[in-house]
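Bench notes, afternoon.
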Amino acid sequence: MRTDGFGIARVMKYVVLVLIAAFVAVLMIYASGSSRPFEEVEDAVSRSLDKSNLTLQDGAAFKRKFGLSEADYAGVMYYASEFSISAEEVLVVLVKEESQVQEVTEAIDRQVEARKNDFDGYAPEEVKLLEDAKQSVRGRYIFFAAAPKAEEYLEAFSDSL
């Protein structure tokens, strides 16, 4: 009887070890960055966008909205609604250095809060869009989407890496 319990404990020890190793592997794959060029990621995300309400914005619009200079980053793709009464926007940034990730994510958070305050009281559907926005950091890539199809855009971003 004692041998059976000891054998099960030994097998369970190996099962737990394998599960931990699998978890670490999945975590590293999911949290790691990508060596893909920005142009490939940009193209994949851009193709997935519903451009009926989104238009490609220039560096000046990126600076105006987020307070960041496009020249400071390895790549910036920014789409936003052409209408000021819409909160729809999609952003992909490739930072040059890991230390820039926090400044970009903080700028996104400030922009979301400012837009929520702008729409609060008269456009609850836009506030909901901002509350349901998707954001992801994968290595040196940062993704943000406030759009009805934000989940699809996030999937296109993740698949492109």
